[in-house]
């Protein structure tokens, strides 16, 4: 999936993935994922998700990475914050309140301090299978040994609909070394995504996973 695909989606306002509510899995499961820790949270491929704000309001330092400058500008504008912006290697580093967003390619993002927590909603599933292993490896390189994360995936018949979002079956997760994936909750999600039914799906499961580096 080339970067211009996503720039084009933002340019055309084809951002059906963006939600005006906090994700259910974050609200229900974040406390058990964070274990009450107040450290920094990595949010890869963050878009302009309101979940960034929710995490910040819980006292976390939040660090997103997002390709689209348009998404980043909209995030801060809608939050009514005026961010600073500086160059950081190949990325632009935006910051306001306790949310920092690095604008650029996630694979160019490097950190000096490992993250103890991460939140992935619509990041892994945004990538085709041939990119997902590289994504998981890079995410792993950013995390502390005792990190934990919340991952939200979709499962559906990939033959019935093209991604993104892609189906990431449970057995695929088992193929990624370096992480243990524990299913926390699985939900029927078709009713929440009528557009996917129109695209041909008759079954859609949304899964919340606790992810632990091993
Ligand atoms: C499906 S959207 C999900 C956004 C956000 N996680 C949410 O829940 O609303 C995927 C986002 O990843 C961004 N993206 C795609 N590839 C990327 C990459 N290589 N590096 C950084 N961001 C990327 C896209 O611009 C898009 O905003």
Automatic annotation (TrEMBL):
EC number: 2.1.1.67
Gene Ontology terms, MF aspect: thiopurine S-methyltransferase activity
Coiled-coil boundaries: none
PROSITE patterns membership: SAM_MT_TPMT (PS51585)
GO cellular component: cytoplasm
Keyword Heme: no
Sequence similarity: Belongs to the class I-like SAM-binding methyltransferase superfamily. TPMT family.
Protein name (record): Thiopurine S-methyltransferase
Protein species of origin: Wenzhouxiangella sediminis
């Amino acid at each position: 999936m080339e970067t211009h695909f996503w720039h084009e989606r933002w340019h055309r306002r084809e951002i059906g993935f963006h939600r005006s509510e906090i994700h259910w899995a974050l609200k229900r499961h974040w406390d058990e994922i964070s274990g009450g820790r107040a450290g920094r949270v990595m949010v890869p491929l963050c878009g302009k998700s309101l979940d960034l704000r929710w995490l910040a309001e819980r006292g976390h330092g939040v660090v997103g990475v997002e390709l689209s400058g348009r998404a980043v500008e909209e995030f801060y504008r809608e939050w009514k914050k005026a961010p600073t912006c500086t160059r950081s290697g190949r990325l632009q580093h935006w910051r306001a309140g306790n949310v920092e967003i690095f604008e650029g390619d996630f694979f160019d993002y490097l950190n000096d301090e490992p993250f103890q927590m991460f939140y992935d909603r619509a990041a892994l599933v945004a990538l085709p299978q041939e990119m997902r292993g590289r994504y998981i490896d890079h995410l792993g390189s950013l995390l502390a040994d005792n990190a934990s994360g919340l991952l939200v995936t979709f499962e559906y018949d990939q033959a019935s609909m093209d991604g993104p979002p892609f189906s990431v079956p449970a057995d695929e997760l088992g193929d990624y070394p370096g992480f243990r994936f524990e299913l926390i909750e699985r939900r029927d999600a078709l009713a929440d995504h009528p557009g996917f039914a129109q695209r041909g799906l008759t079954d859609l499961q949304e899964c919340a996973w606790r992810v632990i580096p091993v």
